[in-house]
Design brief:
about 425 residues; mainly beta; Porin; 18-stranded antiparallel beta sheet; two-stranded antiparallel ribbon; 2 helices; 20 strands; about 5% helix; globular
Amino acid sequence: MFKHIFRQEHMHKILLMALLSTPFAAIAAEDKTDDSVEANKLYLTPVPVIGYNPANGTIYGVGASASIYFGDPETTRVSNMIAGLAKTTLGQTIMLFKSTAFAANDEWVFLGDWRYLNTSQPTYGLGTGPQSSKLVTSGQEIEYDGDLYAGTMDKSQMMEFKYLRLYETVLKNISGNWFFGLGYHLDLYSDIQDNLLDLDSEEKVITSHYSYSIENGFDPTESTLSGLSVNIMLDSRDNGINPRKGQYALATFRYNPEFLGSDQDSSSLWLEYRKFHNLTPEAKYPDILAFWSFGSFITTGDVPYMDLPATGYDQYARSGAGYVQGRYRGQDYAYIGAEYRKHFGTPWNIPVGGVLFANASTASATGANDISLGEYIEAGYGIGLRFMLQKKTGTNLGIDYGFGSDGSSALYVRLNENF
């Protein structure tokens, strides 16, 4: 698992956050005399990780970034795969495999995102702004099983669940840096336990997840979202792992019909854009100014609560630094981020750098809260360090610390750049 999040109020509980046995000396020796790359050679960077957070307990496992050129490096982009397996002292399991693979001469590209989680995550209400920690039905009397309830939820709502994600998209090069293709996407939640939900006490507690699920006709204990997508992608980056220049754009329209297993018919739209400016083009390890923006929108129908667009719901779960994943959620979600990446030097023949970053998120909500997209903006910012573990492919180890406008803070240890 590459993202370890610690809320500020729990920082005193941290037991350990360390990278063990990372072979810096071996990596430096391997790359010392030759930075060239070869076709069909696997460049592997393993990083065992141990960490702790209140939701998972102590985390222990292994992770790796693997890079390869499936054709002539002069005409084929680098492919990258990230894999991880972790267990926790609370009996949770995290398995993931994420990939961006280019065939020889960039004729095809394959985007994969496979995950299995037996885990927990705090959730909040819908939308950004002062109402985001309250029930979606706040201020209204809503009927549940013949009784009338009303109220607010002013704290995080812990969820425990099992989650299976299978995303695979195949795109064909149609002209230059443009690709077009189709994808299949499955989001399967099961054994959902809404820890704050209490339907048996005299003063019942109705959580945001339960309220949304009942109002929109979803089973609050499980959900399925299964769909097909149409995709168009632009990619002119010089290196998808650690870009120095170029741009990237992706548009995905996803249709989730009931006949493919979805609980309800729905559709969504994903729009993404990234831009990279090389500030010191003559340098071997240049300074970079990078921008990232995306929007995720429910275009028709309703989707299960856990599938609504949210903080950190991009492919590599890198957005929203400074906040816990899922902190802001809504029917529509928009995000913008910027990073200044500075090269410091090469001690022990290891390129070392730093990062300054800032981001902003906004989410909408329908119903009693009635929050429009852009009505409230939640900002994040922070700093980080970079250690280049594999110079031939640009693979970095990143350690970032971020802060959120709600007073939260988070520490991240992960492979490759955030975007």
